[in-house]
Amino acid sequence: MRKACLLALLAVLLILPTRPAEASGEIHGGYSLLRDSNSDETFTNGLLLGVGFSVGREVTVVGEFSRHSKDFKAGNVNVVTVEVKSYMAGLRFGGGFYAQFLVGGVSAGGQIFGISAESESRFGIQPGVGFDAPLSDAVAFRFGGDYRLVFGENKNASEWRGHVGVVFRFGRR
Q1: Residue 122 to residues 21, 28, 32, 131: CA-CA distances in angstroms?
Q2: What is the pTM of this model?
């Protein structure tokens, strides 16, 4: 975990000198679907929010939050609600088509009969790819997919995520 964080920090420091004179950035958000391969469950109630700041030509430092939940019912009663949250950061490379590599924390928790259950947090890595379809100079639709590996004590979690949303760009492009 420590090595991955140090490598990500080193990569950012190496490309910082190429930062443009006037910063540019983005805010993005949208719908996200998460598939957990270990539990064979799909979390269809998902949200993705993020920011990005250009640090060089076609290189962006990204911060991202996502939340996914699923209700398990017995009849019409919610018995269990499971929630997966992630706080990730890393680098995105490319313009219209992009590849990114994010690292950070992933937590899973929930509620049983409306009472909060214990939450567990783990370190995860998340490589992904996507495409921005421009609507104007400042607005685009974003389509993407990621694979997330969450490191556990006994078993790692393997998750797939698809997302669609809107990107709002600001500053010099």
Answers
A1: 37, 25, 20, 28
A2: 0.80
